[in-house]
Design goal:
The protein is α+β, with helices and mostly antiparallel strands and 126 residues long. Helices cover 16% and strands 33% of the residues.
């Protein structure tokens, strides 16, 4: 952002309060107002300087008791990598059995973050 940029309005998602935050950047200084706790201050700084997101989606399952396996990233990924990660995950098909926490895709989208199974899948008895 440039010097004297217009204020950025955010809603904090760090806790259920949902504080309305205002972030003003003036030169190299970041001023944050509206937070009711330290978590809001940290959230706003991270959202402005290095926004990240957790991703939850699903992948196809072969020979399982369910057709689609819910998965999630092991930790937040950079916001700009979301589409690369989702595209990579949607190319994956797993074969049953699968356990919760199994790595479904390593280094998703070149982020260094693994995608993990969030449900157990057993072999279909059909």
């Amino acid at each position: 952002m440039t010097n004297n940029a217009p204020p950025i309005e955010l809603i904090c998602v760090s806790c259920p309060v949902g504080c309305s935050l205002t972030v003003q950047q003036d030169g190299g200084e970041i001023k944050i107002t509206g937070h009711q706790c330290q978590a809001g201050l940290i959230y706003a700084k991270e959202e402005i300087t290095n926004p990240t997101r957790n991703i939850a989606t699903s992948v196809r399952v072969v020979d399982g008791d369910i057709a689609m396996l819910p998965v999630k990233t092991a930790k937040p990924i950079p916001k700009e990598a979301i589409m690369a990660v989702v595209d990579a995950v949607h190319q994956v098909t797993v074969v049953a059995p699968v356990e919760i926490g199994d790595v479904v895709l390593g280094d998703a989208g070149g982020t260094g973050v693994d995608v993990l199974a969030t449900r157990r899948v057993v072999i279909s008895k059909l």
